[in-house]
């Protein structure tokens, strides 16, 4: 994976920490200053996803949210500056907001105060890293849909149902559903997640666990949607991930961010079309205007697309949490 022009930039040199121990701080930024990849050689890398780099801290994990952005199942060569900070800080807000609804894996965002994180990484990680408890993650995505959009709308037009759940005839694009739908999916390491029925989900995680995950997902969606609506934002759909920690079902990963949810500004909402959203809409729209075939490495993004996308992520953080980026 490379930055614009195919070359990595922003690799930092050797430096000294406050204790005089020499360490190599390694990470990559692109021409826009977006953090594309971390290589924190003093910590053990657990995994690298489309957006997050995860490191082992012993009893905890360090989740670093980069500025990588994906579209059409590809991680793009251009990042969105501060996108990772928005996702991290918005998840921090929601974990606090939802703490009475379900246990979650959040432990701290104050990486500077954790002695397991070398001081040389503190500036890099500030605002974009989270320390979490380890959990045994269930291999399913818990999707809740409140409106008929995206793949749900495509499914309904073809079958009159969404993920096999029959719906009344005559519903229109972006219309609010009679009641929110729980439509689980398998977790894909690459490409699209695959929608599955609740019965299939029950075979994967057990009937009792599947029922509990459905109940929690619906409760969290409804609580989050009510808060968002009070901020002038519609939560059209979202997905959650859960795991087991200390024998309890625990909310993990990110929660109610523009990368995991479809947010629409309430004052621009209309049915029969896809409303503007607080996510990578400008990225998708731009890529659709190019000659890219979606089967080969994608082109870099122009500065105006990067800037407008960054603005939407920042607006989502400010409107949903009432907080400015730190």
| CA distance, first residue to last residue | 28 Å
- The percentage of residues in β strands lies in 25-35%
The CATH level-2 architecture of the largest domain is identified as: 2-Layer Sandwich
Based on Cα principal axes, name the global outline: globular
Average pLDDT figure: 91
Helix percent reads: 25-40%
Q: What is the CATH level 1 assignment of the largest domain? A: Alpha Beta
CATH domain fold name of the largest domain:
D-amino Acid Aminotransferase, Chain A, domain 1
Low-pLDDT parts are 1-24
Number of strands: 21
Number of domains: 2
- From the alpha-carbon coordinates, what is the Rg to the nearest angstrom? 20 Å
Please identify which CATH superfamily of the largest domain we are dealing with. ATP-grasp fold, B domain
What order do the helices and strands follow? EEEEEEEEEHEHEEEHEEEEEHHEEEHH
Largest sheet: number of strands, sense, barrel closure: 8 strands, antiparallel
Quickly give the structural class.
Answer: alpha+beta
Helical element count? 7
Q: How would you summarize what this structure contains?
A:
The chain is of the alpha+beta class.
């Amino acid at each position: 994976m490379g930055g614009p022009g195919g070359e990595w930039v922003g690799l930092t040199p050797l430096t000294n920490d406050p204790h005089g121990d020499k360490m190599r701080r390694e990470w990559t930024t692109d021409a826009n200053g977006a953090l594309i990849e971390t290589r924190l050689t003093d910590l053990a890398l657990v995994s690298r996803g489309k957006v997050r780099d995860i490191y082992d801290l012993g009893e905890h994990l360090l989740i670093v949210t980069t500025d990588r952005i994906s579209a059409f199942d590809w991680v793009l060569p251009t990042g969105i500056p501060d996108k990772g900070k928005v996702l991290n800080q918005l998840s921090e807000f929601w974990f606090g907001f939802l703490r009475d609804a379900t246990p979650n894996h959040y432990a701290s965002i104050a990486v500077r105060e954790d002695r397991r994180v070398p001081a040389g990484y503190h500036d890099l990680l500030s605002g974009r890293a989270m320390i979490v408890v380890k959990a045994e993650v269930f291999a399913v995505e818990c999707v809740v849909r409140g409106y008929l959009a995206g793949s749900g709308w495509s499914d309904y037009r073809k079958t009159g149902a969404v993920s096999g759940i029959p719906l009344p005839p005559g519903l229109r694009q972006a219309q609010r559903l009679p009641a929110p739908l729980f439509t689980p999916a398998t977790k894909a390491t690459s490409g699209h997640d695959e929608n599955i029925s609740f019965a299939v989900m029950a075979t994967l995680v057990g009937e009792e666990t599947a029922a509990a995950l459905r109940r929690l997902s619906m409760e969290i969606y409804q609580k989050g949607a009510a808060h968002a609506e009070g901020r002038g934002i519609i939560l059209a759909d979202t997905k959650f991930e859960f795991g087991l920690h200390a024998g309890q079902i625990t909310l993990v990963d990110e929660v109610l961010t523009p990368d995991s949810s479809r947010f629409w500004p309430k004052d621009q909402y209309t049915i029969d079309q896809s409303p503007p959203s607080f996510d990578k809409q400008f990225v998708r729209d731009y890529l659709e205007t190019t000659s890219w075939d979606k089967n080969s490495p994608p082109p870099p993004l122009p500065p105006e697309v990067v800037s407008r996308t960054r603005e939407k992520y920042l607006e989502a953080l400010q409107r949903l949490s009432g907080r400015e980026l730190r």
